Automatic annotation (TrEMBL):
PANTHER family tied to this protein: HEXOKINASE FAMILY MEMBER, PSEUDOURIDINE KINASE-RELATED
Pfam families: PfkB
GO molecular function term, any single one: ATP binding
Keyword Zinc listed: no
Alphabetical UniProt keywords: ATP-binding, Kinase, Nucleotide-binding, Transferase
Protein name per its UniProtKB record: Sugar kinase
Family: Belongs to the carbohydrate kinase PfkB family.
Length: 314
């Protein structure tokens, strides 16, 4: 498969409670890494594409861990090592079987000091797709300028732009996020959002109305992630729908990023919209079957095994 994806944003060390229950009474923890942009990059790489990630990391063990994991997943990391700031940290717990609680310790992190000077212009100019999210602009003026500069470069050189709105209420208010996300939508070729995220940018409504309104701002592809109801896409004015797959759910965090990775991998491979959506939904389902933000992301071989009656492969 051909196709080169470039993305930029913050990836953090992740400490996750292994057992269900309050973090205060949970002594078993698992160390990993987490970040929406690197989740997508890993997902694309596992599906056969090339992926590059741009960011800043602290000069610490967490930063080293992130680089090692990305190398193992064949994701190229173009990072600046910040000796004065730490790598960000994310804590995840499951207070009960029905809820996952995530806390971020990213104030003053290395990635929060990103600026347009950290963006590798030549890499973006030569890529097939630049993927950015609404998380990075929420980290501060510097990261916001980095995203805008990356999009400027992509538009100037014909690199397609993908935007996942990915709103985080813990980072900024809906009032602050709306205008920034709208500007990104206006400059994107493909936009991903959940219905509530889409309503930050356009008037609320049914998902068909939301997709039409978002498409009216500029992008020729609008893909709405509907969770248990599957997905709805409006591509070049044509609607496409696909139901969700039923799988045993272990951890839903990262499923949206897996969905995006599946769609982008097929888009770069010039597959038709129906196939893009099918791979996206399948990848999202796979991500729900394993602990971790990216560990359950599928390979091409994995995609072929979903639904197989034989649970043991020999």
């Amino acid at each position: 498969m051909s196709g080169h994806l470039v993305t930029a944003g913050e990836t953090m060390a992740l400490i996750a409670a292994v057992q269900v229950g309050s973090l205060a009474s949970n002594r078993d923890m698992r160390l990993s890494v987490a970040g929406a942009e690197t989740n997508v990059a890993i997902g694309v790489a596992r599906l056969g594409g090339r992926a590059t990630w741009i960011s800043r990391l602290g000069n610490d063990g967490f930063g080293e861990l992130i680089q090692r994991e990305l190398r193992a997943e064949r994701v190229e990391a173009l990072v600046q090592i910040d000796t004065g700031r730490p790598t960000g940290l994310m804590i995840k717990e499951r207070p009960n079987a029905m809820r996952t609680h995530v806390r971020y310790y990213r104030s003053g992190s290395a990635a929060s000091a990103m600026t347009a000077f950290d963006v590798d212009s030549e890499t973006i100019a030569a890529a097939d797709v630049l993927h950015v999210t609404g998380i990075t602009p929420a980290l501060g003026p510097g990261p916001a300028s980095a995203v805008q500069h990356a999009v400027d470069i992509a538009r100037q050189h014909g690199t397609r732009v993908s935007v996942d709105l990915n709103y985080r209420s813990s980072l900024w208010s809906r009032e602050d996020a709306g205008p920034v996300l709208k500007h990104l939508v206006e400059r994107a070729d493909a936009v991903f959002a959940g219905p509530e995220e889409a309503a930050l940018v356009v008037p609320d409504g049914h998902h068909e109305e939301l997709a039409r309104s978002l498409s009216g701002l500029g992008p020729d592809q609008v893909i709405l992630k509907l969770g248990g109801d599957g997905a709805y896409a409006l591509v070049d004015g044509q609607p496409h729908t696909l139901a969700a797959l039923s799988v045993p759910v272990v951890d839903t965090v990262g499923a949206g990023d897996a969905f995006v990775a599946g769609y982008l991998a097929e888009w770069m491979a010039a597959e038709p919209p129906a196939q893009r959506l099918r791979t996206a939904v399948t990848a999202g389902a796979f991500a729900c079957t394993a602990l971790g933000d990216w560990e359950g992301l599928p390979t091409r071989e994995d995609l072929r095994t979903l639904g197989s009656p034989d649970s043991v492969q020999r």
